[in-house]
């Protein structure tokens, strides 16, 4: 019998921006295969995470995905859903609202973030008491003058790949100390699982470096001439992947127009500071779509047109701190409601 460490991970009840929580359960298994069927539910004190009252504080953790933990001996990362004591989804459970049981929807999320130095409370590359050179030379840069944090992001990429996530790339972003990574998954729920696990690995890694991650979409101030951080959502379903019809794409894009409020409500706190119409964004008060237009709310990639209107769409509005489960839930609902 070998002892294994199961890290149960969940989202707390803080609103509108939830936080990752986790705790370790050590179990003995004779020949653990790393499957959900081999592990059980757990519980936690919901009164400490804004998910229950003290007089009835137990909330359930129901495992939904399992990944090997690349940084622990005999360790596993368990993504869970929070359930009420009666087994119904907790109000904080965004995953349970996704209507994609057949995994027809595919998502590719582009997670942007700032690496912050605990000592200076500033992004990497920012001098104490001032600002670095204006943005322009940092994006996809090479060299110590403009590139800050590469060792950290390379290690994070390795951890994600070793954990079995479908990790697709990294690049430094437009501002100093700002980075991005991309993940893709077939299935809206799976895509959300993988973003949350990747964020968990990212946040845990900062403990070793003396950093912390800033997911605020405009951490340098809404009036500063620096790009904000988003989490662009690239999505498709079988219709978008195969239709070959410009009018179908137009109808799906237009289905988003009357539901702007519902989307913006779950696209991240403080997103109004980022969606200004500047820095490659559409204004939060507007809705637009266009081919190869990074200033639009919804971008139709040029490659989709070149392939005869077969592919995907990109919603550029979600902020870096948004919940991928809630983003996916809204996108799935809107696309399914399109009048084709």
From TrEMBL:
GO biological-process terms attached to the record: glutamine biosynthetic process
EC number: 6.3.1.2
Domain GS beta-grasp: 4-87
Subcellular location: Cytoplasm
Keywords: ATP-binding, Cytoplasm, Ligase, Nucleotide-binding
Catalytic activity field: L-glutamate + NH4(+) + ATP = L-glutamine + ADP + phosphate + H(+)
InterPro entries per record: Gln_synt_N (IPR008147), Gln_synt_N_sf (IPR036651), Gln_synth/guanido_kin_cat_dom (IPR014746), Gln_synth_cat_dom (IPR008146), Gln_synth_N_conserv_site (IPR027302), Glutamine_Synthetase (IPR050292)
GS catalytic domain span: 89-340
Molecular function GO terms recorded: ATP binding; glutamine synthetase activity
One of the record's GO cellular component terms: cytoplasm
Subunit organization: Homooctamer and homotetramer.
Function: Catalyzes the ATP-dependent biosynthesis of glutamine from glutamate and ammonia.
Protein name as it appears in the record: glutamine synthetase
Lineage, uppermost ranks: Bacteria, Pseudomonadati, Bacteroidota, Flavobacteriia, Flavobacteriales
């Amino acid at each position: 019998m070998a002892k294994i460490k199961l890290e149960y991970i969940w989202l707390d009840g803080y609103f509108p921006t939830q936080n990752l929580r986790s705790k370790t359960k050590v179990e003995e298994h004779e020949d653990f295969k790393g499957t959900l069927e081999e592990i059980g539910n757990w519980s936690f004190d919901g009164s400490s995470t804004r998910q229950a009252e003290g007089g009835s504080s137990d909330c359930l953790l129901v495992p939904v995905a399992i990944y090997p933990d690349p940084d622990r001996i005999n360790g596993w990362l368990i993504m869970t859903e929070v359930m009420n004591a009666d087994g119904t989804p907790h109000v904080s459970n965004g995953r349970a609202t996704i209507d994609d049981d057949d995994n027809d929807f595919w998502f590719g999320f582009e997670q942007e973030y700032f690496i912050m130095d605990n000592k200076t409370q500033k992004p990497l590359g920012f001098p104490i008491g001032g600002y670095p050179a204006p943005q322009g030379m940092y994006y996809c840069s090479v060299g110590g003058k403009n590139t800050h944090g590469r060792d950290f992001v390379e290690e994070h990429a390795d951890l994600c790949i070793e954990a079995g996530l479908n990790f697709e790339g990294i690049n430094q972003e437009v501002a100093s100390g700002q980075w991005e990574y991309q993940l893709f998954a077939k299935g809206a729920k799976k895509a959300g699982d993988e973003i949350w696990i990747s964020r968990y690995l990212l946040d845990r890694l900062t403990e070793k470096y003396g950093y912390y991650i800033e997911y605020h979409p405009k951490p340098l101030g809404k009036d500063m001439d620096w790009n904000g951080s988003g989490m662009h959502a690239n999505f498709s379903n079988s219709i978008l992947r195969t239709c070959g019809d410009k009018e179908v794409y137009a109808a799906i894009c237009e289905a988003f127009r009357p539901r702007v409020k519902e989307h913006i409500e779950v696209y991240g706190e403080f997103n109004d500071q980022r969606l200004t119409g500047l820095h490659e964004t559409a204004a939060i008060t507007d809705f637009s779509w266009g081919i190869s237009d990074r200033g639009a709310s919804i971008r139709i990639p040029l490659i989709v047109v070149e392939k005869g209107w077969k592919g995907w769409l990109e919603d550029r509005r979600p902020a870096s701190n948004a919940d991928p489960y809630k983003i996916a839930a809204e996108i799935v609902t809107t696309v399914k409601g399109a009048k084709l």
